[in-house]
Each structure stands twice: as C-alpha cells, then as structure tokens.
Amino acid sequence: MKALVFSDEPKNAREIITYLRGKMDIDVISAEDKELPEYGAKKVYFYRDGFIDNLSKFLVDYLSKNKYDFIFISSTNTGRELAGILSYRLKMKCMPEIFSFEQGDKTVTKRFFHGGKTVVEEESNFHMFTVSPGICEAEKSDKKSEVENMTLDKSNYKIVNVKSKNTAGTDIRNARVIVSIGRGLGSQENIEKIKPLVEELHAEIAGSRPVCLDYKWLSEDKQVGLSGKKVRPDFYIALGISGQIQHIAGIRGSKTIIAINKDKSAPIFEECDYGIVGDLFTIVPELVEKLK
Amino acid sequence: MDIAVLVKQTVDMDQIKLNDNNEPIMDNLPLKMDILSKNAVEAAVQLKEKYGGKVTAFIFGTERSTSTMKEAYAMGVDDGTVIKGYQKSDPAVTGAILGEELKKSKYDIIVLGDQSSDSYSGLLAGILSSELGLNVITNAINIEIKDKTANVTVESESEDVTVETELPAVVSVAQEINEPRLPKVMQIMAAGKKNINIIEGKPDYKDDSRVLSDKAPESQRKKIIYEDGKGIDEIAKILKVVK
Question: A126 to chain B: which residues are within 8 Å by CB?
Fold first, then answer.
C-alpha cells in the first residue's frame, strides 16, 4: 500500500506520517521543513511559493502519472481548496475531516458531525481524505526520507499585501499548558486576575468562541474549538468555560483537562479529568499560592 | 455587478437531543440558515451596497428551505432559487447541482461560507471553482472589488495576506469577515411576499459510503469533581509536574 500526504503546514504532515507509518509506504509533498525528513516517509518533496493554482496543477499531473492507493490532505485552507479541486479533476470522492482511518476490505473512517455533537463512523471505498489537524502526536522515526525539491509553475494569483498580526507570536496548538477562559470570566479586565496562574505555569492563554469572537477579550487566533483551533496540550485548564460541544471538539486531544466553574451542571464537568465547582476568582489565587 | 451567494440550510444543531443509545434524534428539528451562510449573505449584500448590483442566492435544499431563503431576502438578497432534492452532506453532489445552476446564471463573484457547521467539510469552494473554471480563495476576512479584479484578504496564523484575483472568482468567507445583520420587522414582512424560484434538482447520490454508527463520543475522562471549595491541593499537586 502506498499513500501520498500533502500539507502546506509541515507540522500537520508530521502528524499524518506518524499516524500512517507502518501501515503503508508514504510519500509527502509539503512546504519546506527541516525536520520533516526524519518522520519515516519514503520520499519528501518540498515546494516553494505554492498557491492553489500551481499546486493543484502540479498535483493533478503528479497523481495522473504516479499511482497511490490513498491520498491524505491536511485540512488547512489550502488543503481543503486542493482537496475540492483534486476531487473534481481526478473524479475521486473525498472523505473530509477524518481523525481515524482503518483499512480492511473497505476503509473505515471517523469524523465529527452535527457540529461536533456526534462522531460518524463510515465505511467507504474512497481514496482521498482530508485529515483533521491533531490526528496524533508527531513522533520522529529512525528512518530518514529521501528529499527532493520541486519547482512549481508561476501562480496567477498576486500577493498585494501582507500584514503581520498582532499576536504574541505563539501558536496555542504547540502549547504544553493552556489556561483557557470563557464567558464566566465576566470581563476583559479580569484577565489580569488569572495572569498569575498563566505565568506560574508558563502557560499560553486561550479562550472560547464568545471570548475571542463576540467579546474580543482575546484575539481570534486564541480561539479553541471546532471552528477555532484544535489543541492538544498536556494540561488544559478551563476557567469559566461551560463546555459547549463545539469547544469540547477542540480540546479532545488534551492529555489532562482541569475545569473550574461555578455552575455544577456545566457540561465541561462531563469532559474533564479534574474539576472544581466554585468561584474561579477565589480558587485561582489559592491555586497559584499552592503552586509557588 | 452580479453577486451570487450560496446558502445552506441546516438543522438547529443546538437542539439535537440524544437517545438512550447516545444517537442523535433528528426528527422534527427546527431548520435554520447555517452560521457561515449568514456571513456569506452579509458579505454579498455589503458588496452590493458598496459597488452596486444585484445579489442572487442559491440554496440546494428541500421544499422546507423557502424559510431560509426568506431570511436571506430580509437581509438584502434580491433574488433566490431553491433547488430541491438535498438528502445528505456530499460535497461532490452539492457541487454538481449548484454548478449546473450557476452555469445558467450571470455572476462576477460567487460567495459562500467556508465550512458549514454540520460537517465542516469545506470542499465546496474548490469543487465549484474547478467545475466553473474559476479562481478560488477561501476563508476570506475582507473583499474589495476593483474593476475586473478583487483583492481578498485571507487570514493565516501569523499574518493577513491580501491576494489579487481576476473575476469572476469563487470566494468563501470566514466568520470574522462581518457581523450578520438582524433584519428589521418591515424587511422580514416584505421578504415573506417575495417570489422564490423553486426548481427540482436531480442529485446523483451514489451508494459509495455507508454510516456504520453515528453517536455522541463517550468521554474517557476521569471526571473527578470537587465541590465546596475543595480540591485545590489535589489540583496543585497534579500541576506541580509542569514546573
């Protein structure tokens, strides 16, 4: 069995290779990344200046000439665009957003459905999949990949402006510890009150959808959830987060979830390892004291 | 200019209850316009307000989708077609049905939501752009039109990138692009009276995948809950490993 993995985010490519390793031979097409050849793929192709038009043209040609049993595309903006285009051009159906893949006579995949409320397990004869980021934790292999740099045609799209965003420069998806805030925090000013905990744990701060999108207490890149980022820290500490299903879908990869919420019936308590029912403004300072 | 907007109607997912077997009960759920479709309609109407022209909406749905089309009218859509025959989430089929209808219409830009909130597939923009032979830009947070081109700003991790594309093009929008308007009562009343073009779609659903199960995932968490202000010592102990 032979698979082609594509990702414009090497971090996701590393995860997908790790997930598939041992089940099949893997070639990868990815944006450049020093470490990617250490994850056990057979061949790694690197591209530069990829846009949707030159990438899709390259991939349609490449996949017409090279036979693969399966194509796995990381679900990013570019990945989903590509999957749609390839699916149409190559007349292959694409199973989207999978987080589990098993192969027998047919393939059995899993993905979230109904906005994250359920998981559908489907049996199909599809050969193309988009893979939800965070399918597993990437681990290096002792096998080194053969590396080839490839050249893409010039794109018809033109970049007219690039504006760096005012983010703290950290990606919450890489965080080991996340302190995440929800509506229960009450106001943006109250973020100061939980900062000592963030600092004590060298954590990244993140938030639920209302906090990031509706109230804008935090920037949008800090939003955790199905429509935000899917995170997988060692510790996810949810402060005043009720735990809507869309939020839970974004934190399922966390090793340990700790929740503090004054509402005993908050759904987050159904989805945490440790929970304290109570006022976060008295609990958090006490916790910080104990940690010192 | 002619703006086409693609709208999806979904069940109200917040209302889904589970049966004893942890499976969703899908009967008699209220229907509503999908969240990102609202952003798409808002973006389309704002383009019309800024550059002039007309907004035409398309829904691939069922006979019950007229309610969502009325909502789109109330938000400022001028004309709408409901294509009946929708059965399930299958981007290839949806793309073929909408593509066929779009080929018969006039547009300078096709706007849609980036990923609908039931399946989050996000494949439709790419499929449609191939079918119609157009450029595609997804997850837009701003659209500006200049003559026969559009400058579309797309958000990535660390930067906002503005890309120029020729028109017509397919542009999918992110929720950050705007705050969908709440139509006034007068507009809702007027929308109710407007004609909706209803046509019979012939979707070609294939028997190529089968649902083995559809269940709420079971939590593997420890669920050790402390009440009455207890548990701080225990949690501090657990978190000590971080330090």
Answer: 208-209
